[in-house]
Each structure stands twice: as structure tokens, then as C-alpha cells.
From TrEMBL:
Residues 1-28, 156-186 are annotated as: Disordered. It comes from the Bacteria. This is HARP domain-containing protein. It comes from Rhizobium aethiopicum. Residues 13-22, 156-184 have a biased composition (Basic and acidic residues).
Length: 294
């Protein structure tokens, strides 16, 4: 952070460059009350108008500044939490999926990717793997309330009874048959690629299946008549590429694209918006594997 304004009565002297003294610098946005608290806490501090920072002398200055900043942050968090709790008391979320804890909101829902994605966007939310609940601090109530309708709708859709009801409705229908065929096709881990625009192998790229790593492009031609239902627009000029799921390390090392892909692209360099959820999923996937390893 940088100080945007200095107080009128400040002392602008600072240690001379040719006579270095032990100490540390700190800068923060100008606020009269904050500056007063700072001067009371560090009476020997001096403002350096060239560097736009406060200089606190002493060999332990850095540690003392760190403690002061942590105290400020704790005070701000406590104030924000109090405001969030008051907002909940005035306009509460009435839902079986949310309960009020001592230090935060506690959210427990059936698994839903939509719920996970929405809660991850709520500031300071965290997943408790032992209790299998989400914790959301009171200070994040406004954002949680804004996202709650979608969270609750997705949670209700994923209740076991509701999922069974939808499954029963699909039994024996054409929709169920097409869904099974699509699932079987995906399990083959192949993807049609235009012969004149083949992706690199061995590194993550984005496709309609998500981010994958192509391991082999054999030159085998695609028969459009057999796969037209799964890959509309495929012609005889397409080749099969075989893929695998990327690892977390591979996704971390992948540099995001600066521009969005073309509308007709079959594969493309993933954007940061695509990489973030893919990295989270890969990290969770690898953590589950490690947990199962004896």
C-alpha cells in the first residue's frame, strides 16, 4: 500500500542517505485517525516525502510494525463482522442449509458443482473437510446473500430424492440413451481435431471437454457419420487425438491466454478464468488420491 496524502503537521525530516540507521519503512493510505494511531504507537517515526513512506527507527521496527498492522486488520475485521451479523439479523437468510455459528455462517448442502463454484467466490469462505461444511465469515454476508438464491436452488436440485425423481423420469427415454452414449464416448478419451490445426502434445490446452493434455495424434481419420451426434461440424478432414487429465503442476505451469478463443476454435490456450477452477479441481483430485494412499 502507498500513502496518498501526508498530514499537514508532519515532520518531513528523514535519515540521511549517507548515514543509514536501523529501522523499517511503512506506507498506508492517508486517514487522520490511522495517522494519529500510528504516531502514538511510533512517536519516533518520521515521514520521508521523497519515498512517500514513514521511517520507524530501531532494530525491531519491522516486527513492531507488523504487530500494529495485524491489530489494525483485526479491528477492521471485527467491525466488518459486526456489520454483517447485524445485516443478517435485520434481513436473515431462512434456509435449512445455513445456520448461524459463533464465529461464522455454517453451510451444509448436498454436493453440487454450482454450490462449490458460488461459495468459492464469496470472500474469505473456506471448506472444512472434517465437518464437511463451508464456513463464511459474517463480514461476507452481503456477497453470500447475493449468491444465495442460486446456491439454494442448486442444493435442492441435488437432494437425493430429487435426483432419484429425475432419474426415474429419464428411464427408458431417448434423452437417457443419448446421455449414456455421450458418457461412453467421453470414456474413450478421444477428441476430433482438424488436420490443418493440430494442438501441441504433452501440455494443457482447452477444448469443449475442458482442459486436457493430448498424448497422441495417430493420424486415424474420424468418420463423421458415426460421431455427428457428439461432435457437430466434424468432417472427413479431422483426426482423432487421445487425451488425459492434466496434473496440478502442469496447470500451474500453464501460462494463460491474454485473449479469448475464436468462436469456431476446436482447441485453444486456456484463459485464467478456465485455469483457476481446473487447478482447484486438480488439487482436490490429487489430495484425495494421497489420502487413499496407505
Amino acid at each position: 500500500m502507498t500513502e496518498t496524502k501526508s498530514p499537514a503537521a508532519q515532520d518531513e525530516t528523514s535519515p540521511r542517505d549517507d548515514e543509514p540507521k536501523p529501522g523499517a519503512e511503512v506506507s498506508f493510505p492517508y486517514d487522520r485517525m490511522t495517522v494519529e494511531q500510528f504516531r502514538n504507537r511510533f512517536p519516533r517515526a518520521r515521514w520521508n516525502d521523497v519515498r512517500k513512506a514513514w521511517f520507524v527507527p530501531g532494530r525491531t521496527a519491522s516486527r513492531r510494525i507488523g504487530r500494529w498492522l495485524a491489530e489494525l486488520e483485526a479491528e477492521a475485521d471485527a467491525h466488518a463482522d459486526a456489520k454483517g451479523r447485524d445485516a443478517f439479523a435485520f434481513d436473515p437468510i431462512d434456509s435449512p442449509y445455513l445456520e448461524l455459528g459463533k464465529a461464522s455462517f455454517r453451510i451444509r448442502t448436498p454436493y453440487s458443482k454450482t454450490v462449490v463454484d458460488e461459495l468459492r467466490e464469496v470472500p474469505f469462505s473456506r471448506w472444512d473437510g472434517d465437518l464437511r461444511i463451508w464456513h463464511v465469515p459474517f463480514r461476507s454476508y452481503e456477497e453470500l446473500r447475493r449468491r444465495w438464491p442460486e446456491i439454494e436452488t442448486a442444493a435442492r436440485r441435488n437432494e437425493p430424492e430429487e435426483r432419484r425423481r429425475r432419474a426415474d423420469e429419464r428411464k427408458g427415454t431417448e434423452r437417457e440413451m443419448r446421455s449414456r452414449l455421450r458418457a461412453a464416448e467421453r470414456k474413450r478419451r478421444r477428441y476430433p481435431l482438424p488436420a490443418e490445426d493440430l494442438p501441441p502434445t504433452g501440455r494443457p490446452v482447452a477444448t469443449s471437454y475442458g482442459i486436457v493434455v493430448f498424448t497422441e495424434i495417430t493420424g486415424e481419420l474420424v468418420d463423421p457419420a458415426l460421431v455427428a451426434d457428439f461432435y457437430p461440424g466434424v468432417t472427413e478432414d479431422y483426426l482423432w487425438g487421445y487425451w488425459r487429465v492434466p496434473t496440478f503442476d502442469e496447470l500451474v505451469r500453464t501460462w494463460p491466454a491474454k485473449t479469448p478463443p475464436r468462436r469456431d476454435a476446436e482447441w485453444w490456450q486456456p484463459t485464467i478464468e478456465e485455469l483457476r477452477p481446473a487447478r482447484r479441481a486438480a488439487r482436490s483430485r490429487e489430495a484425495r488420491k494421497q489420502a487413499k494412499t496407505p
